[in-house]
């Protein structure tokens, strides 16, 4: 009769999945935070209706694809990246100056070649999209246009919706 081998076989090694699971959870948390931060640029507004409104994804953006989103709330407060700004004398001191903010932002962009008829004017390449609530008074939107114009920012657009207004 043959002797049985008493050599014990080691069990098959099992991979430790804990580090991989940790990395997956960290990635999930990272993407959740990043997606929330990207939503800070857009406030929940009821945009005005325009039958000829263009889809911003289909618009030609030119050389600069970064657009500063400026939100004008119904009460006149202007929000950019979640922070409030205003140049309204009634709100003086309560919020930082919109003109100063636009000046600082525009300084970070290149300038266009000046027009030969006006060599002192070199427009900024910065683009601004103004998203105003349909209940906002135009004087509040005009503050944004004034701040842009005073700082040489002429590439502005107004956001609107193609959805028919509720009757």
Question: What are its keywords?
Answer:
five-stranded mixed sheet; 5 strands; 26% helix
Outline the structure in words.
There is one protein chain. It contains three helices and five strands. The protein has one domain (41-115, 122-167). α2 (98-107) packs parallel to α3. The longest helix has 21 residues, at 18-38. A five-stranded mixed sheet has the order 3-2-1-4-5, covered by helices on one side. Helix content is 26%, strand content 13%. α3 links the parallel β4 and β5. The protein has helices at residues 18-38, 98-107, 138-150; strands spanning 67-72, 78-80, 83-85, 127-132, 155-158. The model has no long low-confidence stretch (mean pLDDT 81). With 167 residues, it is an alpha/beta fold.
